[in-house]
Amino acid sequence: MVKIDGLTTETVNEATKQIDQLDSLGIVTLINQEDKKVADAVEKELPQIAKAVDAIAERFAKGGRIIYCGAGTSGRMGTLDAIELTPTYSVPAERAFGLLAGGSDAMYYAVEGAEDSKELAIEDLKNVGLTADDCVIGIAASGRTPYTISALEYGNGIGSLTVSITCNSDSEMAKIAQISIAPIVGAEVISGSTRMKAGTAQKMVANMLSTGTMVKLGKVYQNYMVQVQPTNEKLVVRATNIIAAVTGVDKETARQTLNETGMRVPDAIVMLECRCTLEQAQKALEASAGNVRKALEQMQ
After folding, report:
1. Can you tell me the distance from the alpha carbon of 80 to that of 137, in angstroms, rounded to the nearest whole number?
2. Are strands 179-181 and 161-165 parallel, antiparallel or unpaired?
3. Alpha-carbon dihedral 86, 90, 95, 101, rounded to 10 degrees
4. What is the pLDDT of residues 33-66, one digit of tens each?
5. In whole angstroms, what is the distance from residue 292 CA to residue 196 CA?
6. Alpha carbon distance 131, 125 (integer Å)
């Protein structure tokens, strides 16, 4: 049986005990005051987060995958983070994804009992063919969810990188994972409702892990998402604006060059910055593993 007594995330917040007697402004003010503590809690974990970014980037560069594992809100946070890597950084969906206790239905419906199954986590990881090159990132506010614990244990057995994101100190997950990230956000506004501060902290950490990894791998130039996939008109406009901002050309030229490349922003930037052909730009990018900055340096 999972024991939650004594967990920081399960304690009662004395500052919000009267929340049921407040008007709407008072309610949201209290929530906002508590949310301000989240960034400070995450800040204390920055060295561990940076350590995880380095380790994830190293494995991802070798062909490994980013696999978030969790249940409920925690699992959904990881899944959401992974999904966004495809349109933002052109990461294939099969290289970054989430495994939810209860399967894909758990993304939309509560499948509460699934989180208690350690066998289910092993089955899920076997089904995706977990390897030693992969990164298993387990997320659970309590740090004691059986599904997520099992995912980390199985990952260790395979030789994968294992990272835990929890919101309680000295949790079981923290002891199992090779790298533990544990922002202690304190008692929730509504006692035990870890979709609030704990969920926010988990999202912040997951964003840092994935974004930091993408930056390390050269999928960002300056602070632009140059690997964005222009799959709708909004994203085409964004891609055009990025090209214009980076190269200094007008937007008409940027859009035209983007079209010439088959909607590939890095190719357009290298073509315009180096005044070269598409073929030359593609060769430079291929030689630099898609890193725009390195491709530009090679062409100069």
Report:
1. 13
2. parallel
3. -10
4. 999 999 999 999 999 999 999 999 999 999 999 9
5. 38
6. 9
Give the pLDDT confidence of 58-90 residue by residue, as tens digits: 999 999 999 999 999 999 999 999 999 999 999
The DSSP element (H or E) to which 99 belongs, if any, is strand 96-100
Residues 143 and 174 sit within 8 Å (Cβ to Cβ)? yes
For the cut 60, the answer to whether the pLDDT of residue 1 exceeds it is no
Active centre residues (catalytic): 84, 115
Residue 241's φ and ψ, nearest 5 degrees, are -65, -40
DSSP category for residue 142: S
Confidence check: pLDDT of 2 > 70: no
CA-atom Rg of the chain in angstroms: 22
The DSSP result for 148-163, as a single string, is HHHHHHHHHHHT-EEE
Structure tokens at 298: 């090679």
Sheet (strand 135-139) strand order: 96-100, 66-70, 135-139, 161-165, 179-181
Tokens 């008007």 -> residue: 23
**Residue with tokens 């956000």, as numbered in its chain:** 185
Helix (H, G, I), strand (E, B) or coil at 161: strand
Query: Percentage of residues in the chain with pLDDT exceeding 90?
Result: 88
Mean pLDDT of the chain: 94
Q: Which pair of structure tokens corresponds to residue 230? A: 């222009």
